Amino acid sequence: MQAIRIHEYGGQEQLIEETIEKPRPESGQVIVKQHATSINPLDWKLRAGYLQDMVPFEFPVILGWDTAGVVDEVADDVTDFQIGDRVFARPELTNEGTYAEYTAVDAHLLAHIPENITFQEAAGVPLTTMTAWQCLYDFADIQPGDKVLIHAGAGGVGTMAIQLAKITGAHVATTASTHNVEFLYSLGADEVVNYKKQDFTDVLEDFDFVLDTLGGEIQEHSYKVLKESGKLASVATPPDENQAEAHNVKAGFVWLQPVGEQMRAIAKLLEDEKIKPVIGHHYPLSEQGIRDAHALSETHHAKGKIVIDID
Description:
Blueprint: E1 2-5, E2 16-19, E3 29-39, H1 41-48, E4 67-74, E5 86-89, E6 102-106, E7 111-112, H2 119-123, H3 126-139, E8 147-150, H4 156-168, E9 171-176, H5 181-187, E10 191-194, H6 200-203, E11 207-212, H7 216-222, E12 226-234, H8 241-246, E13 250-253, H9 260-271, E14 279-284, H10 287-298, E15 305-309
Parallel strand pairs: 8-9, 8-11, 9-10, 11-12, 12-13, 14-15
Antiparallel strand pairs: 1-2, 3-4, 3-6, 3-15, 4-5, 5-7
Helix pairs in contact: 3-4
Pfam family, one: ADH_zinc_N_2
Protein name: NADPH:quinone reductase-like Zn-dependent oxidoreductase
Keywords: Oxidoreductase
């Protein structure tokens, strides 16, 4: 099968297209013939070596941790999925990811793709939506009426977090550049702060929860808009404990853990059209396609998800 692998940490030039053996299912696994995958900041951060202490992979590494496709093989002990089923998942974080024609996935992490969702749309959902889910619900336990600020609302996590927060009944504010303001209102945001014209700390106050996707000064300034006993979850950098304590805020770093039950709950929301995928960019599964997709993701200016078309 064709796959894009890296053999050492470094720049986009480390992404190399190779022909390798198709995986075989181990106990509890299925093999997915992929129709699409997607790019996440996790991918290029791992490629560049920024996370090697946290995730010490052995080379070579196939990056990518979103899958959408059709079940091609099943292990003898798998009963919930059959050959031909349309499925999607965020697989476990291993060195055999999803920049490939086939990938092995633990069956308990899979969900069926709703009939109203394409493979490309499905590929853009698992990692970002489950990340938003675990920040909003597991970490913050947001409730109807809570005031929620989501930074970088036009990004992969942001677009799904806005929708999840709105169906929960929260009041949602988000930050964006000028050309994304109307788009984010269309997703349901109640307030959109154009960061090119306004400082969010000047116009927002008394928020219950902040979802930080950027880190740095944005994270530091976010304490100013939180009420006492508010909460801040970051998916960018671990918050400073002393700062959080000084502002009487619960702050923490959320590292996604794939959970099959959450994936299947997300699938039901998609089926019921309560949330929708936002796909902004498409690239092919090729050496140049993956390199270009990484380059776009590294700008932090991609709109919605970057999808890799495999079929």
